[in-house]
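#lab-general

N.A. 3:47 PM
ok so I finally got the sequence cleaned up, no stray characters, all 280 residues accounted for. can someone with queue access submit it? mine expired

B.Y. 3:52 PM
send it over

N.A. 3:53 PM
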Amino acid sequence: MANSARVPISLARSTWRIFDMSLVQMLWSRRSVLLALVVGGPVALAVGIRALVQWSSLGLPVVNGAAITGPALFGMMIWLLYIRFILPVLGVFYGTALIADEVEDKTITYLFTRPIPRSAVLLGKYLAYLVCTVLLVLPSVVIVYFVIVPLGGGSVGQEFPALAADIGMLVLGLATYGALFAYVGARLKRPIVIGLIFAFGWEPGVQIFPGYVKQATVVYYLQALIPQTMPNDSAIGGLIQLFNEAPTLGASLVALFGLTAVMLFLAGRAVQKREFVLEQ
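B.Y. 4:20 PM
back already:
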């Protein structure tokens, strides 16, 4: 019986066990409570805009002689608030912590002494991160959609396919950022600083430079997945085109899925090979 208890568990079963154990802990952590407030920011802003438009004579902003529509304003909020801020923040603060939190809490050795592959610890916690962040972001996006899109005569039903596309894009963005920062967290000792520099220094900084360097960012590929909310003749479309041209949809999907898979593989390998020394 003692020997059977030490038989290694398959990677799939091990990943599921770690996911099941980690999800509840992650959902009710202090980090999730704080980041829920961040995700609630766009909701508060949307409600404020709706109240201002309906209860005052100001109306929606006018660009080139025409008022911005509700769908266009929703597209702007998706781009500026979710893609450029919320997705990187969630990726950095969750992704880098998948392994770092276990090291800081001195529970990593407990997990590694169990008869499961080391990489299953990272994969299970990564899946828990993905579910947790989707549960945080999805309600926020849906509420903002129903508050903002009807402004200026926008149709909630007509724009629903765009909402579905935006949600899919946001989930893919969370998956890619999470995998990238999971690798940073598994590879480096104090990863959160590196993650913040990449997300809010490197990514926005290189967009203004010509050439191929901007392709070494996640946001470069995400922008190709959202043109349905930003018509080319709108202020939002002009805002993006001011910095760079979007890659093709196919190239962006290949790049994002490929980057996610590669980063998860490298993160799992780093966890397998790294010697974790717990500080006293």
